[in-house]
Amino acid sequence: MTAAANELKPVLVFDSGIGGLTVLREARVLMPERGFIYIADDAGFPYGSWEEAALKERIVDLFAKLLAQYDPEVCIIACNTAFTLAGAALRAAFPQMTFVGTVPAIKPAAERTRSGLVSVLATPGTVKRAYTRDLIQSFATQCHVRLVGSQDLARLAEAYIRGDVVSDEAVMTEIEQCFVEMDGRKTDIVVLACTHYPFMANIFRRLAPWPVDWLDPAEAIARRARSLVPQVADAVHPDDFDFAVFTSGAPDFPTRRLMQGFGLRA
Ligand code: DGL
């Protein structure tokens, strides 16, 4: 099949803020022929501290509008906090749409760890989800998994990526619980279970009391999306298509500049 690129439906990438950009950059590499729409529900940010029923309702209502407006080929929910809560509800509400989810990478971590000590760094919402507990039950019962719910790290990542100074102490307070020593063994993998966190991985590495593998699932999510999006021979990326939408309707200047840096109009 051959098609002019501008006939192809776009890929929609969704997060509460800028964290989904860590997934968007990988998805672009694998789907260069597709246009991208980035949705940040910044009016609802941070998702990590929402009450579950209210957040689920908000996300499903928002998608009713987004799907009607943008008619995407696939939606990548580039947010653990959103997908572990509302993934099933989205699929039930919009059965004709393909949703690619983001969940804590507990399975790959359990397969790779040599010490058997794995930590999962996430928002307080993701840490308390039944979905996350089920992943541990299904794939990691042989490991010691420490769940670390961070109150502030998503906000710090937003500030950092916009160019604000973030203190080492503030970051260390959020990540120090990830480092466990037990019976002469040490944590060797920390799962980055919030899409905001890979933006700070260089700081995490510098502050870590010992080296660990910081597991970022962005590439795996992009590969999954690619496998579900039809390849179209000869298609090229539509000119000047990609854009970002903020539910607040009013991204500030550093945010718009950031979006431009990612090749998105905002
Ligand atoms: N980026 C989101 C995630 O992957 C959460 C950030 C927030 O608290 O809104 O979980």
Description:
The protein is an alpha/beta fold. The protein has 2 domains: 5-102 and 219-261, 3-Layer(aba) Sandwich (Rossmann fold); 106-216, Rossmann fold (3-Layer(aba) Sandwich). It is built from 11 helices and 11 strands. It has helices at 21-30, 52-70, 80-93, 106-112, 124-128, 130-139, 153-161, 168-175, 201-207, 218-228, 253-261; strands at 11-15, 36-40, 74-77, 99-100, 117-122, 144-149, 181-182, 185-186, 189-192, 213-215, 243-246. The strands form 3 sheets. It has a 5-stranded parallel sheet. Strands 6-5-9-10 form a 4-stranded parallel sheet. Helix 9 links the parallel strand 9 and strand 10. It starts with 10 loop residues before the first strand and ends in a 5-residue tail after the last helix. Bound molecules: D-glutamic acid (DGL).
What is the strand tally? Answer: 11
How would you classify the quaternary structure?
Answer: single chain
Order of helices and strands: EHEHEHEHEHHEHHEEEHEHEH
Strand residue percentage: 15-25%
Instruction: State the name of the first-level CATH class of the largest domain.
Output: Alpha Beta
Main pleated-sheet profile: 5 strands, parallel
| Tally of helical runs | 11
Name its key features:
41% helix; 266 residues; Rossmann fold; 5-stranded parallel β-sheet; binds D-glutamic acid; 4-stranded parallel β-sheet; alpha/beta
